[in-house]
Amino acid sequence: MRAHKLRFAWFLFAVCALASPVCPQDSGSLPKPSSVVKPTTYVSLEPVPAGKDFQVAVVAQILPGFHMNSNKPSESYLIATTLAAQAPAGIQILDTHYPEGKDEKFSFSPDKPLNVYTGTVVLRLRLTAKPDAPLGAVDLPLTLRYQACNDTTCLPPVKLPVNVKFEIAAATAKSKPVHPEYFSQRSGW
What we know:
Layout: H1 2-17, E1 37-43, E2 45-46, E3 48-49, E4 53-62, E5 67-69, E6 82-85, E7 91-97, E8 102-106, E9 109-117, E10 120-129, E11 136-146, E12 148-149, E13 158-169, E14 176-177
Parallel strand pairs: 3-13
Antiparallel strand pairs: 1-4, 2-14, 4-10, 5-9, 5-12, 6-11, 7-10, 8-9, 11-13
């Protein structure tokens, strides 16, 4: 079954490459895959005390007219949206939270809805600053992986680098919650 789908995909690619009316949009009118999603990052505490759990939100704004597969796509051959972190010394990743996608139908999948993200989606990490975490500025490199599609065309998959900056303070430092719009108690953690 998978081989059949791959042959069909190559056939469709070949037809599109010949500028057939099957593919109304030429590649020159499509945006760069890395420009379809604009991520912005937020941290739940300011500063983050050593020995304390905190969260990071990546708010991904998806270009109107485009979608990306959810973290749990409808078909195994679809590329899931993922968020990976490279934790620096003193930081531990505890969990990643992906929101549920919405089932939507597209012209290339008229019979089966696909589970996708559209508009703005918030991906969150739960982390801890270990008690012996180095104090000071921290850069947390993330990679947002997604494949953006519109109603007729899927762009190549992207691994978009995203950087989060925050401050680690002493365990006794005063800290305040920030950005409650992304870190409310109703958010599941």
